[in-house]
Amino acid sequence: DANIGSIFGIGFPGWTGGPLSFIEVEGPQRFLTQADRYAAELGERFAVPAGLRERAAAGRGLYDEPA
């Protein structure tokens, strides 16, 4: 639902499959590196939630079940 809502609701690029799919394809760690750079340059609206950082540190993706 988040992917579809973001595509149709706010115009997130459809070719990505939505923001959550984009993070999965890019990989959480790569996404975090980019988001941290954006947050430093453009402000806190690009800050990443702690839960995503925890998942990336544990080597888990967004769709992986907890260990």
Write the layout of secondary structure elements.
Elements: H1 2-10, H2 19-26, H3 28-42, H4 50-57
Helix pairs in contact: 2-3
Radius of gyration over all CA atoms, rounded: 12 Å
Q: How many H/I helices?
A: 4
Structure summary, number of beta strands? 0
Instruction: Please tell me what the overall shape is.
Output: globular
Beta-strand percentage? Answer: under 5%
Biggest sheet architecture: none
In terms of per-residue confidence, which ranges show pLDDT below 50 for 5 or more consecutive residues? Answer: none
End-to-end Cα distance, whole Å, is 24 Å
Average pLDDT for all residues: 88
Helix content: 55-70%
Order of helices and strands: HHHH
Structural class, by secondary structure, is mainly alpha
Structural key phrases:
4 helices; 67 residues; mainly alpha
Question: Could you characterize what this model shows?
Answer:
The protein has 67 residues and is an all-alpha fold. Helix content is 60%, strand content 0%. It contains four helices and no strands. Helix 2 packs across helix 3 (28-42).
